[in-house]
Amino acid sequence: MAAAQQQILHRVVPLVCQALLASADDAVWLDGLVLLASAKLRPAMALTSSIWLPLLLRGLDRARAPAVVGATLALAAVVAETLEPIKSCLLKPLRALCADDAIAHSDAMVAAVGRLGLRVRDRHGAEVGLGAGGSVRSAAGAAVLAQRAATAGDKTPLDHPILADIVQRNVPPRARSVQQAWTNTLLSSAHEVSGVWLHNLYQATLEACAVPEMVITHRLGPMLHDELFQTAFLKCYTEIDGDFRAQVDAALARLLLTGGREIGKALLDLVGFLDKEGIAVSPEANEAARQCAKRHFEGDLNNAIPPIVLWYAEQETLQDLSAENVANLVEINIRNGSASYDSAWGTMKWLQYSFDILPEPKWITQLSHWHTALKTQNERDRGKATTFSSLNTRLICHHALGQYKEGYELAQTHFDVLNDHERRKAAHWATAAAWHTGDYESMADWLAFHPKGTSKSLYKAIIDVHASDYASAFHHIAKSQALSYDELQIQLGTAPLALKTLAKTELLVELQEAIAYRSRPAERARILETWRARFKRSHPDANSWLKRLQVWTLACAPTQPELQPCILDCAKLCESTGMREAAQRLLDKATPETWQPGCKVEYTRLRLEWKDVSARVDEDAMRNVRQRMQLHLDLLLDHHKIDRRALESQGLGLQPVTAATGLSQRQQADIARRYHRLAQWTEALQGHSWTTDPSLEVYTYYSLVCKLDKDWFTGSYSLSQAAMHVYEAGDFDRSDTAALSAYVVPAIRGLFQAVRSRDSPERKIRVLLRLVTLWFRYGESSGVLHEVETQLAQTPIDAWLLAIPQLIARLGTRDRALQGVLVDLLRSIAFRFPHAVIWPLLTASQTRKVEHQNAAKLIMDHICSMPDGVRLVSQAELVGRELIRSSISWYEKWRAMIDHLLPRDELMNAPWAEVADMWDEDIQRLQAPETPSEAQFVQHFGDRLVNVYKTLVKYRSTRHPNYVNTAYTKLFTLDAYLSQWKAPGFKLDLASEAPRLLALRDCILTVPGKYDHSVTLDDQAFIDGFDAAVDVLPSKQMPRKLVIRSYKSDFTFLLKGNEDLRGDERIMQLLTLVNTLLNHDTEAFQRHLHLLPYEVIPLSPEAGLVSWVPNTQTLQGMIAAHRAKKHSNLSDKELASMLGYDPDSPDRMAKTKLENHTEMERYDKLPVEQKVRRLENALSHSEQSDLREILWQRSLSAEIWIRRRTNLARTLGVGSIVGYIIGLGDRHGSNILIDQLTWGALHIDFGDLFNVARERSTYPEKVPFRLTRMMTNSFELVAWQGHAVPGSRGNFKHAGVVSMTIMRDNRSTLLAMLEAFLYDPLLSWTADTHPSTAQETKRAKRQNAVADTRQAAKKNGIAPEASQRQSVPLAPLRSLAISAPNAVHEEVEEAIGSPYIEGDSYMAKAGGAGMTNARALHVLAQIERKLAGYNDTSERPLTVKDQVQELIREATAFENLAQGYVLGWQPWW
Fold first, then answer.
1. 1201-1232 b/e with 16+ CB inside 10 Å = b?
2. Which one, of 1160, 1162, 1145, lies nearest residue 1346 by Cα?
3. R_g of the chain, CA atoms, integer Å
4. How confident is the model at residue 982 (pLDDT cuts 50, 70, 90)?
5. Does residue 1454 have a pLDDT over 50?
6. Element of type H or E holding 864
7. Euclidean distance between CA atoms 1320 and 1101, whole angstroms
8. Given pLDDT bands bounded at 50, 70 and 90, which one contains residue 135?
9. Phi, psi of 1222 (to 5 degrees)
């Protein structure tokens, strides 16, 4: 009933708004605004802002009566919370109103701007809402608002005259009862026209529900019927009982079986809706719904199916795991569209392996696996098409693969023996094959059987154009365009079909242009240019491009030079998608009768031949193709009269090429492309020995490419890679200036050229990071540094914006010349983009490394010399300092310091003699508090802390143990007092914590993380203010939810203290790069695979901001809330089973004072077999269906349910694979967020990276990522049925395979970024550091992961003092001590594996090039091992599918899930 009430309120608001907008009477407006502000409509107002916001803006008009303006302001104050995300749209009207002094300082205006948190000034410049002393004058306005709200709340909506009038005019004078309404509709025979019968049922149900608002709103139009009917039916159904309810159930059963498809679909949705609400219909009605859903199974695979049918089919299959039901599930997933194709493929494999039933070729064809479908059909037919189904499948596959000749021959052989029905179905494919093979006579014959529609008229127009019958062609084009419009109207809800129709309309336009090309020679140049531009912008789809080129060749020959680039691009695309025959046919068509040296068609043919022979590893054929490319290049050079030996003699070295100076830039680029192929192919033939080749043939070719075409990204980057390969293979000493000049300097030059090229930012970031690494690895050489300075002068400054964190991290370099060049670069960046560097510089200025501090301050001083620079820097320092102050109060700071000091076992184990020195600085701060909050702390605890400090000073000089006893007693008492500070969930007042933030005026500082260099400065999001109230979130670290206001929008952040977020910032860079790689991959793009990175802005080494992700809930929180709603004690039983208590006696466990550390120690000593049994016992208490139930219940429709379920599985799949690669651990339920709108999974808390969780000494994790039964059971049925390993089929597995493929294919890109992390001196994991307070708080944060579990356990008897005192024991971070170079290399070999290190190992070469950080190098070598296909136990590289399958097996294995810190990780959830 809550859903019904919500929909009722939801419909009242539009009615009131409609009445007000239609009225000009101020009295009506006043009454209507008060009604909208009433308390009863408050929930509805939060859901209908798009409806009442225009009304609100109209009310804030100076032309309105003052009373109306006041009432509108009062409404704005009431709905301030709803307006929070969009309140900036009110600034303009409020400012206009404030030009009137009477309105500006009225109570209503003061209350509105106070509640909205907006800063508005009157015409004198005074801020509205502030009195003479700066105090907020909103009490009077609040009182007026409260009075109005109370008055409005007394009146029910129905008592209001406006609504009463609407009710009187719209509600029938005597409402029908439910029995009367359904007797004449639901219980009657269905009308001949289903739509009419359904309309009558909807109307009768809505009237009978006796809710006036629903009765009225449904009359706004039939579009609302579907939204309101199910809610109204629920209300009516729950009010009836006895015989009439039995009649209704019988009627539902009868109509589901006999009512037709439209009625059946509506009632299937209805029964599904009742199931979500927990309302059960009769068994007969349920059985009828099941049969009705089965009736929808029948039909062609191309016919769409109602989404609700999938839900019924899965329920049916769960009850009966038969081959028939699984086969039905395959077809239903196929008919649900491309979003369910991965589920269909997995279900098809389930049918094949579990029931030994081979998949139907038509299924495989529909899933676009053309080669597999053709192979399966050939195996089934033994090479001959014996049935029409076989013929049709072959025709479709040959068409999709571009094998038009084969399809044409099939049609020639079999078309005449088909019956008329079969000819109509095969005519489209036969006609298309005839068109592409140029047989227009057969095309016309087969077209006669083509069904009427857009395609038939299009083909007729093509035949007419070929015959030069333009009048008939225009007739058929016009007819096809009219039909396509009708088709689009029908297909609007079916994206794939609509896209096909749109593609046909594009062909019709180009057919008209082909006619114009043939008939109007003067326009040919323009038309060719239009075609080329359109082709370049179009989506790369091979079949669409082939059709487009076929239309063009109706007008001009394929050998036309203007069309050649398009034809060659299409040929390359066909080759890459497995359409080799189509690619060869295109090249044959485009080959000129007499070709010039350097012919692009011949060049492309050689490229495609090489791809084929290299894939087959046919070395003889590879040498032959290479020789032909050499001959091709020789002829081109001879044509340009260039001496090849003279040209290649200028390849090595830094001097430019003079042998080709007479050529144009385009001609030099053509030669460069051919030399690049020669270099690649020679490298492949020579193997790894190319780096030691005395002639350096490959390196010479790459060097020539870079010199001939300086604007080509690929050529420049290839040179840098080749140069460093040769340098590393030569094992040169760093003091060898000749080697540095011969290899390192060209490598750096190549990288700079790549940065300057016109390429995508995602490729440039890889180059920039590699460049920064080489620059600072070899920059101590004067030759290298000189080259860097020269290239920096030629490189645009904005190119470096992508690598600012890495540049600033290098400020601490001890080489003065190197640091000077970097500082000059950062000064140049700061001069052009000061807002881009101010926050990273602020962080660097607060590091403990003096070199970093001084260099950062030097650049900030440079900013101060710029206009408004002093103001910018001072504001940044103020905001940063106050945000850091707000991130952790003195109460929290001192409590952490004391808690860290107090010993856990022996009193004298604590470093008491060192405490006084560690406290010196903090004790001094107690003497000068800067905020009211700090002053209050000093007042309460200052004297006590100073007293303890003095006691410890005495102990330091005397070492008398009595002083320790005294200090310990006082500290223990202080710790107890400090523990009672504000509990999580409280709000902090910035006026007390950081008053300078609230006093900030005229800020020219952009909101952290929101600066966009591509947007003008005036359009940037500048800080306008801060919300005074700051929420403290309920976790042990108590992060703050902070709102920063801007004139553009309000931005919400999580303010975190005692945490170094610089590593998280780098990880977000990596995730953004992975997202870009996913977006550029066809398979990933089609599946919408993506990660959900968020912005991280470090403010100092101990604090930072994280952008707030709205509409999310933790995985653990969702499950806990769902069980709490059902009042279930399952959680208690599961916990009892894991801890070895009797699950049937929760009271006994509750009486036992559980203590986490003790329980985990006891559990950890158990053998693995017993741990597995305990986990099995915990899982036996339920079906682990909570998440599946939440997903179904929270989805408004079956379509949304399918979309959300697919998105959940896919985002978890991508996140799991990426997390595995970077060694992300600690994936408990509170570290995975679920977007409540899209159900995308978001990972947070990257504290345990690089296999730290798996390698710690206590409670190490064994799983590569989180994939519990609760999670797999929420995926599609095939993911958790029919396979011993859950998650092995379906969307999760496919997303993982695609993601792993992309990451392995882009291994060098990812490792280049991770190598930059390795050399980042600001990241603690890459330095030889000792445990610090920051690391301890990091460890405390990881202990927090079990907060929810502790709360659950507390109910069962955990002692409060135990939860306060005991911490989760975690292994200390592994030492990062520097190793000797030989030890490093041995560690790399061990990590990567000797078979692989002999190959093309990125990190092995890096290790041999002077990397000496053993731990970091070992970590990155592990990552490369994963990207090469090795898992923990594999001795040889695995295929992508095998690797992902093995990871899924490890993640779901009970022997792995049962280990680790299970109380926090909760593997049963």
1. bbbbbbbbbbbbbbbbbbbbbbbbbbbbbbbb
2. 1160
3. 36
4. low
5. yes
6. helix 850-864
7. 14
8. very low
9. -90, 5
Mean pLDDT across the chain: 80
Instruction: Classify residue 1100 by its DSSP letter.
Output: E
- Of 227, 270, 245, nearest to 182 (Cα)? 245
Q: CB burial class (10 A; 0-12, 13-18, 19+) of residue 1380? A: exposed
DSSP H/E element including 1056: strand 1050-1057
696: Cα separation from own chain's centroid? 45
C-alpha atoms less than 13 angstroms from C-alpha of 1379 in its C-beta half-sphere? 19
The predicted pLDDT at position 622 comes to: 92
CA distance 35 to 23: 15
Q: Which residue, 443, 570, 563, 479, is CA-closest to 514?
A: 563
- Given a cut of 60, is residue 6 above it in pLDDT? no
Q: Which two tokens stand for residue 738?
A: 């000749």
Q: What is the reported pLDDT for 1291? A: 92
CA-closest candidate to residue 1461, choices 1330, 1360, 1339: 1339
Alpha carbons 129 and 563: distance in angstroms, whole number:
69
Q: Which helix H or strand E contains 1057, and what residues bound it?
A: strand 1050-1057
Q: Which two tokens stand for residue 618?
A: 């046919």
How far is residue 1281's CA from residue 1278's CA, in Å, rounded to a whole number? 5
Q: Is the pLDDT of residue 1148 over 60?
A: no
CB atoms within 10 A of CB 711: 15
Encode pLDDT of 36-78 as tens digits: 887 767 777 776 776 777 788 888 887 788 888 888 888 888 8
CA 822 to chain centre: 34
Determine contact, residues 249/256, Cβ cutoff 8 Å: no
Copy the structure tokens of residue 517: 């090309």
73 to 14, 109, 113, 693: CA distances (angstroms): 20, 6, 9, 81
- Please give the Cα distance from 204 to 221 (Å, whole number): 15
CA distance 692 to 695: 9
Model confidence at 660, in pLDDT bands (50, 70, 90)? confident
* DSSP-assigned beta bridge partners for residue 1022: 1006
Specify the higher pLDDT residue, 542 or 1393: 542
Q: Which helix (H) or strand (E) holds 454?
A: helix 454-466
